[in-house]
């Protein structure tokens, strides 16, 4: 089936469509990991975004539900060079094409992903529209220009009801802005009594769960739009330890008075080098973000930058020891990506323990 992807700047590419027929709009972003397409497609942080993989062959190990980071595909669409229809993996239950069919998501392959990536890298992240079943490039570009990133995107991916994973360890409330399953798993595996609550939960409701700590999760969209999360973190900072991952790190920083800005094309990949300023160690990290904390906005505030990106110097972690706030921009849960920073969850539980000692 023919398909077309159009960008807001008038660029378009025609290729082979698969999955759902029709129009899909989103912000076109590129991700550079060589593996991990199941985890990325199901990562709720990609809601609102059309995901382009720079790696030229996608689908070669099929699809296995155990890798999912949420109930199903959350990215708006998929853009790839070559699609593998005959995967080889003992745990695979279907191929990529069947996966998109089952999930009602659209994909386009046989397009020049290098050219598209260079375009985004040069001009910045762009709005895009994909039409599966058409090759009308002008129409796709026009649809891209009309589309707006939804402000309430977190509400589209947060849980509807709270849920708990019982454990004998400390009680941790996870504010779900679109949490990845492996974050919850990392807490549960360490014995935390994990309570996942919707993004709209108030500070009073959070405290009603008698938590020992709060984890602000990852999630899609502009952190400034996560207004309830910011309000909760502002209110509870100083009362109990607060941790943040990715969007959660941005929310915690906003709550402490810092500001955030949009990166030109973001960091999405599995080999982003991060320097730990306290130890001098460099970690290779998994990342997926388009916004970052502005270091200039931290000047004069009681926030300490703990990690920076070795490629571009952007903020990758911060803390406020007095208020017991610790957060990281990268993904310690990996999935996909290297496990170098999995210690984050160990240190989290140690810090919570210290708080109650
Ligand atoms: N993975 C995330 O939590 C992403 C955070 C935020 N939506 C960003 O793009 O920067």
List the helices and strands and how they pair.
Blueprint lengths: L1 E6 L4 E8 L2 E10 L5 H5 L7 E5 L3 E2 L18 E3 L2 E2 L12 H7 L3 E4 L3 H11 L2 E7 L4 H10 L6 H5 L5 E3 L5 E6 L4 H9 L3 E6 L4 H6 L4 E4 L10 H10 L5 E4 L1 H9 L4 E17 L5 E12 L10 E6 L5 E6 L4 E4 L14 H14 L1
Parallel strand pairs: 3-4, 4-6, 5-7, 6-8, 11-12, 11-13, 13-14, 14-19
Antiparallel strand pairs: 1-2, 1-9, 2-8, 3-9, 10-12, 15-16, 15-17, 17-18, 18-19
Bound molecules: glutamine.
What is the oligomeric state here? single chain
Mean pLDDT, to the nearest integer, reads 97
Which structural category fits the helices and strands?
alpha/beta
Largest sheet: 10 strands, mixed
Number of helices: 10
What's the CATH first level of the largest domain? Alpha Beta
CATH fourth-tier homologous superfamily of the largest domain: Class I glutamine amidotransferase (GATase) domain
What percentage of residues falls in helices of 4 or more residues? 10-25%
Account of the 3D structure:
By secondary structure, this protein is α/β, with parallel strands linked by helices. It has two domains: 2-146, Glucose Oxidase, domain 1; 153-356, Rossmann fold, CATH 3.40.50. The protein is built from ten helices and 19 strands. The chain has helices spanning 37-41, 96-102, 113-123, 137-146, 153-157, 181-189, 203-208, 227-236, 247-255, 343-356, and strands at 2-7, 12-19, 22-31, 49-53, 57-58, 77-79, 82-83, 106-109, 126-132, 163-165, 171-176, 193-198, 213-216, 242-245, 260-276, 282-293, 304-309, 315-320, 325-328. The strands form three sheets. Strands 10-12-11-13-14-19-18-17-15-16 form a ten-stranded mixed beta sheet, sandwiched between helices. Strands 1-2-8-6-4-3-9 form a seven-stranded mixed barrel. Strands 5-7 form a two-stranded parallel ribbon. Helix 8 packs across helix 9 (247-255). The chain is globular. The termini are far apart. The mean pLDDT is 97. Bound molecules: glutamine. Glutamine is lined by residues 45, 218-221, 246-247, 288-291. Glutamine binds at residues 45, 218-221, 246-247, 288-291.
